[in-house]
Amino acid sequence: MAPTMSPKTTLRAALLLTVALPIAAGAQQAPRVTKDAPATQPPRAAGAAGRVDRSKPPALPPTPALRVPTITTRALSNGITVAVLENHEIPVVSVRALVDAPAVLDPAGKEGTGALAFAMLAEGTTTRTAEQLADAFAELGTAVAPTGFLTVTGNVDRALELMRDQLWNPAFPQAALDRIRANQVANLRRLKDQPTYLAGRVLANALYGAGHPYERATSEASLQAITRDDVAAFHDAYVRPQNVKFVVAGDITPAQAIEKLERVFARWPAGGKKAGYEVPAPPAIARTTIYLHDRPGSAQSVIYAASHGPRRDAPEYYALDLANTVLGGSFLSRLNTNLRETHGYAYGAGSGFSYRRRPEIGQFAASAQVQTDKTDSSVVEIVKELRDIAGARPITQAEYDLAMSNAVKGLPLAFETVSQLSGAATQILTDSLPLDYYANLSRNYEAATVASVNAAAKKYIDPAKLAIVVVGDRKQIEDRLRALNIAPVVVVDEQAKPVAAPTSGGAQR
User: Fold this and answer.
1) Cβ atoms within 10 A of the Cβ of 347, count?
2) What are the residue ranges spanned by the domains of the chain?
3) Residue 502's pLDDT is what?
4) Which class for 232: exposed (0-12), middle (13-18), buried (19 or more C-beta within 10 A)?
């Protein structure tokens, strides 16, 4: 039997080892002496007399080259498009099914049908109960959602079978429907306590008007109106080959991906509808208006300053993205520097352009959550920054350089993992972008000049046509907002409809 060491002996040995290691390391770096050559000294530190020069930061290494994997597209025999990105560094594969079934397809009065249908896909199939699905996932060692999975290469075939079963054969058990619906109703009630949710609802109504596809949202009443037949009908109509695309990324070749998907999904039953719809143009914003929604006792106010935005395929897309980085798209942006660093009104402030699939319009919004007694001052500063970026204080060369560096130098980090590769291909398919989009991304950003960035900001940010939403304690902020004389103030409900004046406090005018 091997001898054991007492605690004192172990401690003594450890101490001796810590002393011996530096000695050994020093011995390895000792000058080398041979009979034919003099002693050679180890390299000395940079700077005068071997000292490091700390008067200036070290030079940055060159920006790593952006290596974007090739996206190969093929089609299954039933017409389903498949995008494949190879990456054989680790033995994992990601598969995603992109189902084109947006919320605008929900029947009127039954908003939330599509989301409820997709939530139900994992609740059991005609061949497996939910418990049996869970057992199959445990045996496989990975969860398989109806619309995708990430697993080791050897498990792809079995994972695809489980994915197909959920997509094709959902059972829609009534008990599961009742449970999920109850959870969604409870979640909606919690959301109504959140000022950001309330601000979003008011903003959607202010920008698009009641009943517009972009305004419609799930409500308790719409959830309660949805039946099992509604959910099954939505699945039968839209979860069909003509509305599906696959993205496969990782340790797999295009030929292997097509072979595996063809074997599993080629016999997907035809039928249903093509997910087509038309979205009417929203009413134009005639003039800037402040929409105040009362949240009594709120310690903070949520502020949105928003407008309609350009389409995703606008020629100024890259210039506009750089302009937004300067305005509110980074920590060093004008909005965040103003409200957080200079004035201390908020923990953070920002802005952004959001896009929908072509040819639908996008949306612009600047936002912040500020302390209640600084609500009016924050509105003043936000509007000031929007006026400045739109021409009063154009973007400088230094701001442009920082925004360009932010846009280009971070790109290599966006393609490090298999999931990131899958996400990149997903964006290309959903936004109908060219396959070489990422390969040309740096060049497209660098083609934007300071002049074109300023022109884009002036074109798409109009301080005279904004919907400014403020959610906060009306009694404390209404009179001060009116005193600004920036824009008319309208006190509204969640649907952005004017409400009557209270019996005390601020007054509707």
Assistant:
1) 13
2) 71-265, 289-492
3) 60
4) middle
Are the C-beta atoms of 327 and 334 separated by less than 8 Å? yes
Q: Is the pLDDT assigned to residue 48 strictly greater than 70?
A: no
Rounded to an integer, what distance in angstroms lies between the CA atom of residue 4 and that of residue 366? 68
Question: 308 has which bridge partners?
Answer: 363
What does the pLDDT average to over 303-332?
Answer: 97
8 A C-beta contact, residue 123 and residue 178: no
Residue pLDDT, tens place only, 138-194: 999 999 999 999 999 999 999 999 999 999 999 999 999 999 999 999 999 999 999
3-state helix, strand, coil in the chain (%, to 5): 45, 15, 40
Same topology, domains 71-265 and 289-492? Answer is yes
Angle between helix 130-140 and helix 156-168 axes, rounded to 10 deg: 160
Contact 319, 448 (CB under 8 A): yes
pLDDT, mean over the chain? 89
For residue 301, what are its two tokens? Answer: 């106010």
**Token couple for 440:** 């040309």
CATH level 3 topology of 289-492:
Cytochrome Bc1 Complex; Chain A, domain 1 (3.30.830)
Q: Which of 166, 159, 73 is nearest to 118 (CA)?
A: 166
Closest among 470, 505, 476 to 491, alpha carbons compared:
470
CA 323 to chain centre: 19
Fold of the 71-265 domain: Cytochrome Bc1 Complex; Chain A, domain 1 (3.30.830)
| 367 bridge partner residues | 304, 350
| Strand ranges of the sheet holding 300-309, from the earlier edge strand across to the other edge | 346-354, 362-371, 300-309, 467-472, 289-294, 489-492
Look at the alpha carbons of 323, 329, 335, 337 in this order and tell me if their dihedral is positive or negative: negative
pLDDT band at 315 (very low <50, low <70, confident <90, very high): very high
Q: SS3 string of 256-286?
A: HHHHHHHHHHCCCCCCCCCCCCCCCCCCCCC
Note the pLDDT of residue 413: 85
